Q: What sequence folds into this?
DNA sequence: TAGGCCATCTGGTCCT
DNA sequence: AGGACCAGATGGCCTA
């Protein structure tokens, strides 16, 4: 029974095939899990499927009352047949505990018994004697491993849940188009910085400055997503001042199809995939709008931040990119064809909410207004 | 088909 | 000793 769980483990994920030479079982089926990854992927089945939960529960049960027939062992643990023997120290402690349980499996620990049945002459090994990997030991090892796997799964699920919570509080939460993990973290970082910058300066930035700051280091699709959110609901992002957003460009300015696409590479800066929202690119479509970017951006980030979006000197020198922070090898960039909201030029904002609905929006506005009343 | 993203497994290390 | 955390490896899914 427990080996339904072993199979479960194999089904749920490819798993690492250590040593590379292990045959495995070829292509395995896999439960359709959350395949939300990717910048513009549509979401699939919820991750916490009842099946998975059932399996996990079953795993726990099985771990408590582990019984297995030899043929099951043979049949369902082909991977483990080739597994390296567990570390000696792991096994040492266990024999005392449950020696009675697998007493029939234990074999005498003769020197010659250790590694070879061929009877070849070998130099004596130093160190603790290696105990033969009996079935019972193997079984305990598997149980431990399964428990650890289950814990690790749960841990990662918790991590993903936290990330999902974060997605909901950063701008542009969408139930149908999830930000990737890395983009969520980047956007959150930018958002925190932008808000703290507002607090620091006590001034409300104009919308373009704000979105500019939010989109630093984000990929092109995410940048477009943020821009789409802003277009839909700019007030979510910026505090109301006298009932109006002073520098907010009117709607049509955003539908002019200006693009954040990268103008090109700068030597030494691996920048292309990240939206390059350089002011000239942005504002050539909205020249009539006040250019209030600098006051908001001049403060600069103090800490390590997203990679610089702009390579034309618009950003303060404190913008430093972190090595290895550019995982996108130019995959996006011009792929967007210069259209901000998608190939067709229309806003690709289906299902996008700026934050998680209006409630959150109200809360944010209250908070933001409170900030400005205080300052 | 390549690349991005993801979930999972796994072994090592550190901590309680 | 057992659990948490971490990073590497692996394979599946999806999109351009």
A:
């Amino acid at each position: 029974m427990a080996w339904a769980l072993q199979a479960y483990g194999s089904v749920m994920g490819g798993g690492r095939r250590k040593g590379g030479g292990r045959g495995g079982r070829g292509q395995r089926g896999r439960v359709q899990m959350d395949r939300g990854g990717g910048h513009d992927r549509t979401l699939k089945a919820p991750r916490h499927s009842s099946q998975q939960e059932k399996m996990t529960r079953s795993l726990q049960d099985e771990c408590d009352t582990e019984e297995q027939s030899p043929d099951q062992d043979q049949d369902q643990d082909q991977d483990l047949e080739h597994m390296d023997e567990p570390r000696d120290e792991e096994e040492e402690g266990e024999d005392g505990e449950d020696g009675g349980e697998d007493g029939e499996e234990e074999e005498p620990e003769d020197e010659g018994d250790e590694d070879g049945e061929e009877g070849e002459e070998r130099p004596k090994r130093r160190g603790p004697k290696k105990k033969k990997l009996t079935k019972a030991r193997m079984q305990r090892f598997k149980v431990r491993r399964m428990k650890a796997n289950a814990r690790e799964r749960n841990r990662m699920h918790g991590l993903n849940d936290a990330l999902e919570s974060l997605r909901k509080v950063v701008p542009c939460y969408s139930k149908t188009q999830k930000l990737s993990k890395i983009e969520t973290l980047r956007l959150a970082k930018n958002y925190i910085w932008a808000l703290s910058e507002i607090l620091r300066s006590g001034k409300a930035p104009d919308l373009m400055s704000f979105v500019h700051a939010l989109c630093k280091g984000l990929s092109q699709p995410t940048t477009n997503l943020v821009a789409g959110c802003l277009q839909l609901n700019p007030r979510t992002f910026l505090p109301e001042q006298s009932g109006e957003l002073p520098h907010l460009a009117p709607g049509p300015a955003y539908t002019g199809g200006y693009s954040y696409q990268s103008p090109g590479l700068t030597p030494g800066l691996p920048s292309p995939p990240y939206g390059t929202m350089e002011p000239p690119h942005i504002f050539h479509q909205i020249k009539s709008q006040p250019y209030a970017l600098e006051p908001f951006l001049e403060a600069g980030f103090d800490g390590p931040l997203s990679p610089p979006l702009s390579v034309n000197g618009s950003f303060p020198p404190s913008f430093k990119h972190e090595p290895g922070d550019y995982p996108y090898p130019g995959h996006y960039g011009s792929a967007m064809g210069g259209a901000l909201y998608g190939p067709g030029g229309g806003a690709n904002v289906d299902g996008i909410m700026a934050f998680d609905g209006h409630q959150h929006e109200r809360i944010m506005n209250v908070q933001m207004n409170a900030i400005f009343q205080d300052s």
User: Anything to note?
Assistant: Strands of chain A lie at 173-174, 352-353. Residues 9-10, 12-18, 30, 33-39, 41, 47, 84, 87, 145, 148-149, 152-153, 156-157, 160, 180-182, 327-329, 331 of chain A lie near DNA strand B (CB under 10 Å from a C1'). The first helix of chain A runs from residue 2 to 12. The CA atoms of residues 32 and 320 of chain A lie 40 Å apart.
